[in-house]
Design brief:
Elements lengths: L1 E5 L9 E7 L8 E5 L9 H7 L3 H4 L5 H16 L6 E2 L2 H16 L9 E2 H9 L18 H17 L8
Parallel strand pairs: 4-5
Antiparallel strand pairs: 1-2, 2-3
Length: 168
């Protein structure tokens, strides 16, 4: 489960500020967190404010290539060859992770696809108007590890409800 925070709507023109990942298993103890230095002079103040960081703070974060390499190494150690990217809003989160991996590493260890947690829930309950968010236990704080953990809790609950998925 992955969640990102950014300072704008698209990668390349704007920057991924930070991201978190949680291996979805009952304990939810295997996590990754990265903070990335901006790659562009452009930023939307309101978008950056969601992350809780100032522009000055983000400019002191780590170089993106180093963070993405550490994330790739963590994925290799924790997941081996079996990786499935799931997020609450994969249309947003995936575009940043995918772009950053391809731009800085030359490939994305997740491959070419992702899954949307909300869509999985809608299919499970057979209702496109329902939301999974009541299944979270961890408060949604916009810290990406907290948010990924809450979404992982929801996915574990969905598995208990009958979703067929191999986790952990």
């Amino acid at each position: 489960m992955v969640d990102i925070e950014s300072d704008g709507p698209i990668p390349g023109d704007y920057s991924m500020v930070c991201f978190g990942a949680v291996i979805v298993e009952p304990e939810l103890k295997r996590t990754f967190y990265g903070q990335l230095r901006p790659i562009s002079e452009r930023f939307v103040p309101e978008a950056l404010a969601v992350s809780g960081f100032s522009r000055d703070e983000t400019e002191r974060f780590e170089e993106p290539q180093a963070v993405m390499q550490r994330f790739a190494d963590w994925l290799n150690a924790e997941c081996g060859n079996r990786r499935l990217f799931i997020s609450d809003n994969n249309g947003f989160d995936w575009q940043f992770i995918n772009w950053y991996f391809h731009h800085f590493m030359g490939k994305n260890p997740f491959g070419f696809s992702s899954s949307n947690l909300g869509s999985l829930y809608k299919g499970l309950v057979k209702d496109t108007f329902r939301t999974f968010k009541h299944l979270r236990k961890t408060k949604h704080t916009h810290h990406p590890v907290d948010d990924a953990r809450g979404n992982a809790e929801a996915l574990l609950a969905m598995k208990q409800m009958g979703l067929k998925i191999k986790l952990g």
